[in-house]
């Protein structure tokens, strides 16, 4: 719901499609794209640290169930993702996929973004992704035949067949790819070398959807209080050693896979082998430390820019040196993976085998000196570029190098002359802007001498940075010689770059393999240090002694573990408890553990079993939204409308304190109505509330399990009751006869007169409630039926158990519990 500015009238504002984010919804302009700094809003929420140039082209087929094509081109990573989504009228999945891509530019067809009558989809994207620049491209650019030609020309030869099979019938996705490539060519004057672009089709059905507000409130990618804090799920799991591994981890956490056999199981097997083979694990971690961000380097190599000159040749030389360093590091990882037996690690090892890397490395060493490596300091990098190309390839190049060597020696000799002449301890330094300069302690120099003989003086606290006229002249001669070396190296470098572009496809596959093994080794690091267990993937969610992953690390042994159970007969969990008893932590834990399990990580528990979940929703935050003119209750209702519109039986929802933003009566009524609707979806619901009456009303419903967080009451100082939180979940509703809210108010120092009055009112309300209880016979019959259904489900679950040794003891305990509970019902 949205309030019109300047009026008291409320109007519906597409409540089913607006709660994707809590960032500003300022309308962005339709502009011609230009290079600019990206907005921090969405990337910070999603944990993206490095900037990307991402161009998305989108096109929709209007109808009752709109089909939307998306082509995402990441210019920083040389990667294209094609998708075609059968969405609903609110474009939920399309908006979600665009938000996860964090595009810098979104390209539409001209008809979609007409100033007079923009489409609904364009208006939604403009409002919900304000940090992206909106643009349009000519209708002629959206061509299926042109899109297929781009795929045949740019995709690696071995991938073209599988890509064509995947995109068969995906007309809109192919047209979007054509438009995106033509837009990049026109706006940036960029093209890609043939058979060098990674292109994949990504269906929307094979990944879990976690809406943006759930990511934010669950602290999946970023801590709510501090963006720099590592106290979030990504910060906990990110022990990767390469930028490539960090990106893969981020992408998996934003969209966890739902294919157990294809992705999750193979990752479990690889992770289990790593944590059981300690020597192999340490060797893998050691080998991963040697890698640069080769993925970005390869992308820059295959992008063809219409730029020439010294800087362009220097850049290509840097890229070649980085690729050489990368290829020299791959054999260490190959040797580290030698003992591997799991399918995934064996596949990664085969991709890194010497037969793939050695020919490319030898090809580089035919032109580049074998002992030249990529260096980070400006002076070392300049020297390495100067002597990178082998001697003997060009006579003029060798002469220029000799001149460069002599000039370098002359500059160092001149530094000794300065020290002798002025009796100072000058240190020779280098940077790319000033080239060589002196650092001289200020105590060694007279101010008059400084004014007479030194130029470009920059005073510092204990020293000064300066040059002399002779040094500037030597620098200029050195720069001219260095440029001549680079230009004369151009012919050899240009031919080598052409060769590398033809061999780039297997190198990209090696990068992807390294990133994946880095992510799994990151899981291994946290698994071995925190004592995690391998989950099972079954139809039932069952966790024994599970721990909140973030608080478990922070609190260590002080954290109290809890059990979780969710199945067809217990799918709606109504959690009650005292203030500060741990209700929110309890329900958030299950969502975070589900994400960990589906990305292939072990979880903090003694035993864990999870179903495959396709959607995670969360309604937790109590913040208002000033930009959208919504109060905290307005935000709450908008987000609940979104959840109710999109939740299904393969979803998990975490809802905390629904209805607290309005009056008690209305809040209770809304909470009950929404609970009824959620119960009918057959989703796994974890619902924390202070409305104890709600828990009691739903206690007799099939599928509802009432839980409460335990607390104990004792007599404190002065004979007053003292409340102690145990942070342990148990069946049933909280006993509100102890008036835990009043006890908390007393503990923080409220006057006794107010406390006495509150207790009188609370006791009166309790007596009225007890007098309205339903008849004893009907009450007992409902509980008998429910007990029998629970027993039936428990026996069915026992049948599926693979552990036959413990099944007999389990059935005996089950019978005893059944008899005890039946006796309790009869005594009501």
Automatic annotation (TrEMBL):
SMART domains per the UniProt record, alphabetical: MUTSac, MUTSd
Region annotated Disordered, chain positions: 21-47
Keyword Zinc: no
Domain (DNA mismatch repair proteins mutS family): residue spans on this chain: 651-667
Pfam families per UniProt: MutS_II (PF05188), MutS_III (PF05192), MutS_IV (PF05190), MutS_V (PF00488)
One GO MF term: mismatched DNA binding
GO biological process, one term: mismatch repair
PANTHER family hit by this protein: DNA MISMATCH REPAIR PROTEIN MUTS FAMILY MEMBER, MUTS PROTEIN HOMOLOG 4
Family recorded in the similarity comment: Belongs to the DNA mismatch repair MutS family. MSH3 subfamily.
Descriptive protein name: DNA mismatch repair protein MSH3
């Amino acid at each position: 719901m949205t309030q019109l500015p300047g009026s008291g009238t409320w109007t519906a504002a597409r409540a089913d499609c607006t709660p994707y984010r809590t960032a500003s919804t300022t309308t962005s302009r339709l502009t011609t794209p230009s290079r600019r700094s990206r907005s921090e809003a969405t990337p910070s929420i999603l944990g993206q640290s490095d900037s990307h140039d991402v161009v998305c082209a989108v096109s929709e087929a209007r109808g009752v169930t709109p089909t939307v094509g998306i082509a995402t081109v990441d210019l920083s990573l040389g990667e294209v993702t094609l998708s075609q989504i059968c969405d609903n009228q609110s474009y939920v999945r399309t908006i979600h996929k665009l938000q996860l891509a964090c595009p810098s530019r979104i390209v539409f067809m001209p008809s979609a973004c007409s100033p007079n009558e923009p489409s609904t989809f364009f208006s939604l994207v403009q409002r919900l992704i304000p940090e992206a620049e909106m643009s349009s491209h000519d209708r002629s650019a959206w061509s299926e035949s042109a899109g297929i030609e781009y795929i045949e020309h740019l995709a690696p030869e071995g991938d073209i067949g599988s890509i064509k099979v995947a995109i068969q019938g995906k007309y809109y996705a192919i047209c979007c790819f054509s438009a995106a490539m033509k837009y990049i060519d026109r706006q940036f004057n960029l093209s890609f070398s043939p058979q060098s672009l990674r292109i994949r089709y990504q269906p929307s059905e094979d990944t879990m959807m976690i809406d943006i507000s759930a990511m934010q409130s669950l602290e999946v990618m970023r801590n709510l209080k501090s963006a720099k804090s590592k106290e979030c799920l990504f910060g906990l799991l990110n022990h990767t050693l390469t930028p490539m591994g960090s990106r893969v981890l981020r992408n998996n956490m934003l969209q966890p896979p739902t294919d157990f056999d294809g992705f999750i199981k193979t990752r479990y097997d690889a992770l289990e082998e790593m944590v059981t083979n300690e020597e192999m694990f340490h060797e893998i971690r050691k080998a991963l430390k040697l890698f640069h961000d080769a993925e970005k380097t390869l992308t820059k190599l295959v992008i063809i820019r219409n730029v020439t000159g010294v800087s362009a040749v220097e850049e290509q030389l840097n890229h070649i040196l980085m690729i050489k360093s990368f290829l020299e590091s791959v054999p260490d990882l190959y040797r580290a993976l030698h003992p591997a037996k799991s399918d995934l690690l064996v596949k990664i090892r085969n991709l890194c085998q010497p037969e793939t890397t050695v020919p490319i490395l030898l090809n580089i060493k035919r032109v580049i000196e074998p002992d030249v490596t990529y260096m980070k300091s400006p002076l070392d990098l300049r020297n390495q570029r100067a002597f990178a190309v082998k001697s003997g390839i060009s006579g003029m190049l060798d002469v220029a190098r000799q001149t460069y060597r002599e000039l370098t020696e002359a500059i160092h000799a001149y530094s000794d002359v300065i020290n002798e002449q002025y009796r100072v301890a000058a240190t020779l330094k280098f940077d790319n802007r000033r080239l060589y300069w002196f650092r001289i302690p200020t105590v060694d120099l007279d101010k008059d001498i400084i004014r007479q003989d030194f130029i470009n003086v920059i005073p510092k606290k204990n020293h000064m940075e300066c040059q002399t006229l002779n040094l500037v002249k030597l620098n200029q001669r050195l720069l001219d010689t260095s440029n001549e070396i680079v230009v004369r190296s151009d012919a050899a470098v240009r031919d080598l770059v052409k060769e590398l572009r033809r061999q780039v496809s297997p190198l990209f596959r090696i990068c992807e393999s390294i990133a994946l093994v880095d992510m799994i080794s990151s899981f291994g690091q946290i698994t071995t240090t925190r004592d995690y267990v391998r989950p099972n993937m079954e139809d039932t969610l069952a966790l024994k002694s599970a721990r909140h992953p973030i608080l478990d690390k922070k609190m260590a042994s002080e954290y109290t573990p809890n059990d979780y159970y969710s199945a067809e007969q217990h799918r709606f969990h109504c959690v009650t408890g005292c203030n500060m008893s741990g209700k929110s932590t309890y329900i958030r834990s299950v969502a975070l553990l589900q994400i960990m399990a589906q990305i292939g990580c072990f979880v903090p528990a003694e035993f864990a079993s999870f179903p495959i979940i396709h959607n995670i929703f969360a309604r937790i935050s109590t913040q208002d939204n000033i930009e959208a003119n919504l109060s905290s209750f307005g935000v709450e209702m908008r987000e609940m409308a979104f959840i109710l519109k999109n939740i299904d039986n393969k979803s998990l929802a975490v809802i905390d304190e629904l209805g607290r933003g309005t009056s008690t009566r209305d809040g209770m009524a809304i909470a009950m109505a929404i609970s009824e609707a959620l119960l009918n979806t057959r989703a796994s619901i974890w619902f924390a509330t202070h409305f104890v009456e709600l828990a009691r009303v739903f206690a007799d419903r099939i599928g509802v399990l009432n839980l409460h967080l335990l607390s104990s009451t004792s007599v404190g100082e002065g004979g007053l009751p003292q409340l102690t939180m145990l942070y342990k979940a148990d069946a049933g509703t909280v006993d509100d006869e102890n008036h835990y809210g009043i006890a908390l108010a007393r503990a923080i120092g409220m006057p006794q007169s107010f406390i006495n009055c509150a207790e009188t009112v609370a006791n009166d309300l309790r007596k009225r409630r007890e007098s309205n209880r339903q008849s004893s016979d009907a009450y007992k019959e409902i509980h008998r039926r429910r007990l029998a259904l629970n027993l039936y489900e428990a026996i069915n679950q026992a049948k599926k158990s693979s552990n036959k040794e413990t099944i007999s003891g389990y059935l005996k305990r089950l019978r005893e519990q059944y008899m005890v509970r039946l006796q309790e019902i009869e005594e009501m």
